[in-house]
Amino acid sequence: MDVEVAIVGAGVVGCATALELSRRGVTVTLLEAEPEPGLQASGTNSGILHTGFDSGPGELETELILRAARLRDPVLEALDVPVLRCGAVMSPRGAAERDAIAALADNARHNGVEVRPGPDGSLAVPGEAVTDPVAFTLALAAAAVKLGAELRTGFTVTRVERRDSDLTLHDDGGGSVGCRTAVNCAGLGAGAVARLAGDRSVDVYPRKGEFLVFELPDSKLDRILLPVPSEGTKGVLVFPTIDGKVVAGPTAVDQQDAGDWSVRPEAREQILPKAAAMFAPLADAEPEFAYAGLRPAGRGVNYVIERSAACPRLVNAAAIRSTGLTASLAIAERIAALISGAGVTLGEPAPLVAGSPMRYAGPWWRRTAERLAT
Question: What DSSP assignment string belongs to 224-285?
Answer without folding.
Answer: EEEPPPBTTB---EEEE-TTS-EEEE---EE-S-TT--PPPTTHHHHHHHHHHHHSGGGGG-
